[in-house]
Each structure stands twice: as structure tokens, then as C-alpha cells.
Amino acid sequence: MILILSSNTNQQSADYQQLIAYLTGLSNIDMRVHVERGAEQVLTEIYLIGNTKALDIKDMKSLPCVERVVRVSEEYRILGQHKDDSRPTYFDYNGVRFGQDTLNVFAGLCAVDNAEHVEIMLKALRDNGQICTRMGAYKPRTSPYAFQGHGKNCLPFVFDLAGKYGIKVIAMEITHESHLNEIRAALQQTGNPTGVMLQIGTRNTQNFELLKIVGRQQEFPVLLKRGFGITLDESLNAAEYLASEGNRNVVFGLRGMKTNMGDPHRNLVDFAHVPVVKRLTRMPVCIDPSHSVGTRSAAPDGILDLMHITAQGVMAGANMVLVDFHPVPLKALVDGPQALLLKELPHFLEDVQIARDAYLKRVALAQRFAQ
Ligand code: PEP
Ligand code: MN
Predict the structure, then answer these.
(1) Atom of ligand 1 nearest to the CA of 256
(2) How far is CA 65 from its chain centroid?
(3) What does residue 100 show for φ and ψ, rounded to 5 degrees?
(4) What gap in Å lies between CA 26 and CA 22, rounded to an integer?
(5) Which residues hold their Cβ within 5 A of ligand 2, which is an ion?
(6) Within 6 Å (CB) of ligand 1, which residues are found?
(7) Edge-to-edge strand ranges of the sheet holding 29-37
(8) Dist. CA 202 → ligand 1 center (Å)
(9) Strand 2-5 and strand 66-70: pairing?
(10) Which residues contact 53 (CB under 8 A, 6 or more apart)?
């Protein structure tokens, strides 16, 4: 059960103290207080865990400071979408909104190779009205002999250049706690010219200790990729780990499933789960067509599979698109064969917009027929 308190509730107030004293006295109930500091208000939620079936919603609602009460099912307590749940399905970060009704494109390099390519990429994004990007600094690779990413060495120039080209959020995978500290330090050193969305890759979806560490900070939002060989439920529980530790600014990423049933694509595209995740949880949903499809093959209609599949995800209501581009894919150190070319960026963005407009029309149509 979640008690949502009136906004800006003061934890020093007599009412709040009275509430806490009452809750502490309940037998077989533990509580966890979560405070969310937004730009305009401070929201406090109290999670009650244990034998909450014995609690009456009306009684709980009549307690001091309590504005709303949500009875949650066992599943995805914090990030889940529960009955009569009016908690938000969005969050704001560094001036950008991430919600179940917004769409942000994160085009960029799979892996940072050099400053020149980063600058060419970011300039192209700026010139095409983009404020988000992807830039891999820490790369989890199958072979220990493959390029592992430039790590902390590339962070200062990536952040500086992002600031120069007006990039507000960079999606960047981390695989270890030390990477979080390195990102924090480099942002500080460069004067916080941009923001970072920490990415947990598909190989780490169930790295529970990493999830707990990333969940304990609220400075950076998190893009959690679905595990490529586990059930959707298992991946959604992984997202819940982040929230249960305190960070609920989580985007859930679909990136295809590992099976040869998807051949000749790199993975079996799973964007049919976009509406499922939006129904089960309050998370915005990201699609990654690059790691799903993995090639630049085109259909006889002249449209790349990558673009077809992006359109499918966006038309199903996706809220974020993570996609690999590279100025010279032949020179890319990671995933060159699946990278789109910079001259394809305006084409890609316009195609995404067509799919987005179609999605919005479909929503309006559904609303009309529901009346
Ligand atoms: C990536 O986005 O760079 C990546 C490695 O993705 P995934 O974890 O989905 O394979
Ligand atoms: Mn990649």
C-alpha cells in the first residue's frame, strides 16, 4: 500500500510526526519513506509493506498529511500501474520530459571512438533539432580482446562537446559502480554542461548489485534494457529493483530477444511489448532498433529494416528511440554494420515523425470509438 502525502508536507510538522507514530505502531507492517524533490514541489510517499490487507483504505486516507492511498498488487509495487493509480507516468530530467505520452530520439554513437566523430555527430544532431544522444564509453563486449570503450578518458570531451551543441541528455551504459563515480566526477570537472541517463545493458539486467547501486542515487535517470534471454516479468522486476532502492526515474528499453527465430536479424524484435509495458507499469518505453535488427538491409520498397522496425515501435506508442549512427561506419570500433549514416538522419527523423503522427491519430480514433 502506498500513502501519497499532500505536496510539500513538512517532515518536522506535528501532523507528519503523528502520522509516522501511528504507522510505526501498526503490527506486521514495515514502512519506507520516499521523497521526490521536483522543481516546484516536494512529494512524499510512504510505502507500507507486510500485512497491508488488514488496513482499510478509508481509515488510511483519514490520517494526517495523507492525500491519496493506492493499494498495490505484489507485482512491481513502485513502478507498476495499479488499480485507481493516478501516480505520474513521466519524469523530468535536465529540462527534458520522459513520459508515456512523449517521444525522444537518442541517436548517436554506439561507442565513442574519437572526439572528431563525436563532434560531427553532435553537430548533426543540433542541426536537426535534437537535444538527446547516445554515447557509449563503457562497452560490454563478448570478446575480452575487443575494444572495451575509452571509459573515463573520453568523458570530458564528450560532455564538453555535448554542452557546445546543446545536448541535454546522453544515454551512456555503465557496467560497474566506479563508472557512476567517473561520470559524476567528469560532469563536475566540466561544469555540468549536459545530463546523463545511465544505461544498464541487456547483459546486466539481472546484475542485482549493480541495480541496487544505481537505484540508490537519484541524480541520474536510468534506461534499463530488457534482458535478452529472460521473461518480460523478470526484466520488469529488475526495473523494480532500481525503484525499490529509491530511483523511480526509469525508462524501460526493448532491444530484441536472443534467438535464431529472429534470423536474419540480430535479435527477434520485441516491440509488440511496447503497449504491454505501458499497461503494466508507469515507465516510458524505449525501443532500440539498432541492437534488435543489427543490419542495414533494406526491403524491396527501399526502406531499411531498421526504419521499418522503428516505425512499428513508434506507431505502437514507444516513448524513446535509441539508435546507432556513425559518420564513418567502416571506421566504427563497435557495431559499424548496423549504424545509420549521418545523411540518413533527417530521413530517419522524418520517418519517426510520420509514425508518431500515425500513433497519435490512432489514439484519437480509439478514443472516438470508445465513446
Ligand atoms: C548498447 O546500447 O550499446 C548495447 C550494448 O545494448 P544492449 O545492452 O541492448 O545490447
Ligand atoms: Mn552496440
Answers:
(1) 9
(2) 31
(3) -75, -5
(4) 7
(5) 110, 335
(6) 110, 136, 173, 201-202, 225, 255, 288, 291
(7) 29-37, 42-50, 2-5, 66-70
(8) 6
(9) antiparallel
(10) none
- Quote the CA–CA distance of 222 and 224 in Å, as a whole number: 6
Query: In the prediction, which pLDDT does 39 show?
Result: 75
- Tens digit of each residue's pLDDT (9 = 90 or more) over 323-347: 999 999 999 999 999 999 999 999 9
Average pLDDT, whole number, for the chain?
96
Report the run of H or E that residue 252 belongs to, with start and end. Answer: strand 250-254
Q: What integer pLDDT is reported at residue 371 of this predicted model?
A: 86
95: exposed, middle or buried (C-beta count within 10 Å: 0-12, 13-18, 19+)?
exposed
Task: In whole angstroms, give the CA distance from residue 226 to residue 292.
Answer: 11
Among all ligands shown, which has an atom nearest to the Cα of 175? 1
Helices and strands: H and E segment counts in the chain: 11, 14
Model confidence pLDDT, tens digit, residues 63-122: 999 999 998 877 899 999 998 888 899 999 999 999 999 999 999 999 999 999 999 999
pTM score over 0.90: yes
Closest atom of ligand 1 to 110 CA is 3
Q: How far is the CA of 334 from the centre of ligand 2 (A)?
A: 6
Contact 239, 224 (CB under 8 A): yes
